[in-house]
Automatic annotation (TrEMBL):
Pfam families the UniProt entry points to: FGGY_C (PF02782), FGGY_N (PF00370)
EC category: transferase
All copies of domain Carbohydrate kinase FGGY N-terminal, residue ranges: 10-178
Organism of provenance: Halodurantibacterium flavum
UniProt-recorded name of the protein: Ribulokinase
Domain (Carbohydrate kinase FGGY C-terminal) ranges: 277-461
SUPFAM superfamilies: Actin-like ATPase domain
């Protein structure tokens, strides 16, 4: 590509604690610069379920990160052809009629709306609401309607001033493009489908009479959640002169509909139809681009057409804690994860004799039970923290195997990609995942964070005809971890034991507990 004129795009990834701006050259696939800027996460000792952030803090951080990225790249920001942004979800802000926040965001990790979510779930089950099936059978306390109802119940003085509510990814687009007309507000199908029960199958949002039956406070709410619904390969608006000046960009450049960080990380990691990406970080988000005729699956937290790739069914699942569990093991041992991982050595399947159910922060998929706790079986006096870490990695991989079996209806996915921050630093995890899943595991050579945003920006700029063409140019290459065929029989046996314990402890299925510890001892002794 030597001598090719640059085709510059920028993308932002709003995480839990900071925003990261990435600038790429669409012509070469080169990352020219990245820059991050933090914002505070508001917690409360009086209410540990609260997690909030201010819209103004988000936009100030975006301004700083964009300006730094442009300076680091040594470019004229006026040359950037398009900009896109992904965010956490469901991070919801309530707005007045003038699009001004009535309060801070209910961040994705704000769990105050658990009672409201339970009421929505119970009412939907009583009614046989189809929308609940496509949520996996349970409406989460992390999702939009639950948080909106919690706000209305606990802020009576603001009820009459409520104009609308928006997901963070949509609020960023509306703000940067100066969109204030309620009928013109951008609504991401990724966000609204996975968190607000939107689908073209039933004409959009769930029936208003159902929502009103949950609580009269939701009466007429859908009329306030209107706008233009679109996928991320479609342009939602154009950067306003005001925000172009603040960010150092050219006014009028296109901005696509937003999306969620894990979904766009999957796109940036190179996901194709029939594939799945494990976005492995402090927790894990499992994103699949499944067949368009995929049916809803109990226990899987969302199936939405077009939420990941055009023409594919975007399916989301996950684990409530992954890296957090590894860090907790290391912290209790007075060590760190890298040091413990280096001590693991060449342990075979189940070779520690430990089996770990990784519920330290509850179960997000398949049981959807936040009230569960971690379990480690098989301890003896010689076990070390490195043994526990290995067992936790095996437990994670076996939980992923169980989830993927549910997501794919028993059929294997064509390719597994381990993205996120942990796989690039933990080869043990990738080897174990490949052996447990029995398929090659691909790991991007560099972080795909921000690449997905640049891909959608490049499509909006017209640099590529479609997402697949943009991925072919912009996604990082991958390193492949192939499964060891010799490990398969042992891991099949260990997985059967894991699955029995998972459902025994998690859902009360019958299990011969007297056989568990002796079998783990056989694994320990290599039998």
């Amino acid at each position: 590509m030597t001598g090719t004129a640059p085709q510059l795009v920028a993308g932002a990834d709003f995480g839990t604690l900071s925003v990261r701006v990435t600038i790429m050259d669409s012509a070469t696939g080169e990352v020219l610069a990245t820059a991050t800027a933090p914002y505070p996460l508001k917690r409360s000792a009086a209410d540990p379920l609260l997690g909030q952030q201010a819209h103004a803090d988000h936009m100030e951080a975006l301004t700083l990160a964009m300006q730094e990225a442009i300076a680091t790249a040594g470019i004229d920001g006026q040359a950037i052809a398009a900009f896109a942004a992904d965010t956490t979800g469901s991070s919801v802000v309530m707005l007045d009629a003038g699009m001004q926040p009535l309060d801070d965001y209910y961040l994705w990790c704000d769990h105050r709306a658990h009672a409201e979510a339970a009421e929505i779930t119970a009412a939907a089950r009583d009614r046989g609401l189809e929308a609940l099936d496509w949520c996996g059978g349970t409406y989460s306390h992390e999702w939009g309607y639950a948080k909106l109802l919690h706000f209305l119940r606990h802020n009576p003085g603001a009820r009459d001033r409520l104009g609308t509510a928006m997901e963070h990814c949509d609020m960023v687009v509306a703000t940067l493009c100066g969109i204030t007309d309620p009928g013109d507000l951008p609504r991401s199908i990724c966000a609204m489908g996975h968190k607000w029960m939107w689908s073209p199958r039933w004409g959009g949002l769930p029936p208003q009479d159902f929502l009103s039956s949950v609580d009269p406070l939701l009466g007429g709410i859908n009329a306030r959640l209107g706008g233009r619904f679109g996928t991320s390969d479609q342009v939602a608006g154009r950067i306003s002169p005001e925000w172009a000046a603040r960010l150092g960009l050219r006014a009028g450049i296109p901005m696509p509909f937003g999306g969620f960080d894990a979904h766009w990380d999957a796109v940036g990691a190179g996901i194709r139809p029939g594939e799945v990406v494990n976005v492995v970080g402090t927790s894990t988000c499992i994103i699949a681009a499944a067949a368009p005729d995929t049916a809803p699956v109990a226990g899987i937290c969302g199936a939405v057409p077009g939420s990941v790739l055009p023409g594919a069914m975007g399916v989301e699942a996950g684990q409530s804690a992954t890296g957090d569990i590894f860090e907790a093991i290391a912290r209790r041992a007075g060590s760190d994860v890298a040091m413990l991982a280096a001590q693991i050595g060449d342990i075979g399947p189940g070779g520690t004799g430990l089996l770990r159910l990784v519920w330290d922060n509850g179960d997000r998929t398949v049981l959807v039970r936040p009230d569960l706790g971690g379990v480690t079986l098989g301890w003896d006096l010689a076990h070390t923290a490195a043994d526990e870490l290995h067992a936790a990695i095996e437990g994670m991989a076996m939980h992923v195997r169980l989830i993927l079996g549910r997501m794919g209806g028993g059929a294997p996915f064509a390719r597994i990609i381990n993205a996120g921050g942990i796989p690039q630093k933990n080869p043990v995890l990738n080897r174990v995942y490949a052996d447990v899943l029995g398929v090659p595991v691909h790991v991007p050579d560099r972080s795909p964070v921000g690449v997905g945003a640049c891909i959608f920006a490049a499509v909006a700029a017209g640099h590529f005809a479609d997402v697949a063409a943009a991925q072919a140019r912009l996604c990082p290459p991958t390193r492949v971890y192939n499964p060891d065929p010799a490990a398969r029989p042992a891991y099949d046996d260990l997985f059967a034991l894991f699955e029995g314990l998972y459902h025994g402890f998690g859902s009360g299925r019958s299990l011969d507990l007297g056989a568990v510890l002796p079998r783990l001892r056989q694994f320990r002794l290599g039998h």
